[in-house]
Amino acid sequence: MGNNRVKQLRKLSQHYAYSSIQMHEAVARKAGLSGTDHKYLGFLIEKGQMTAGELSNLTGLTTGAVTGLIDRFEKKKLVKRQFAEDDRRKVIIVPNTENIMALLEPLYATFRHKSEKLYASFSNKEIVIIEAYFSKAIEIMVETTTKLNEK
């Protein structure tokens, strides 16, 4: 592949990333959240309940910052703190998926509908290529993130 083609793809990828950040920031504002809080809430939806320490490791936030994050989510009834049965010193953050989805789903409805129409416009062969790209790109990002986070 030529150098110009690589530059063109890199520029398109960056534009996609920037557009994604802008859209998620707009959704977050409408939901009464900061952009980063919105994405961290996504971690809780995806991964489910976890300790504050696990959330700290996942996000890279300090434990103090995670405490503030959980306080903000708890105030909005998006999560609750629960003591671990085996160790009452350990606090588990439990997402309230019903409240989270009630808050966010309406804000994503049009985007989801248009995305589904876009996916339907591709052939099965094209979908396989798109899936391969995203899967491999995610692997590269996870690898890069892991390497950057090493102490």
From TrEMBL:
InterPro entries: HTH_MarR-typ, WH-like_DNA-bd_sf, WH_DNA-bd_sf
Taxonomy, superkingdom: Bacteria
PROSITE patterns hit by this protein: HTH_MARR_2
Keywords: DNA-binding, Transcription, Transcription regulation
Protein name: Transcriptional regulator, MarR family
Start and end residues of each HTH marR-type domain: 2-139
Claim: Cell inner membrane is one of the keywords in the record: no
One matching Pfam family: MarR_2
GO molecular function: DNA binding; DNA-binding transcription factor activity
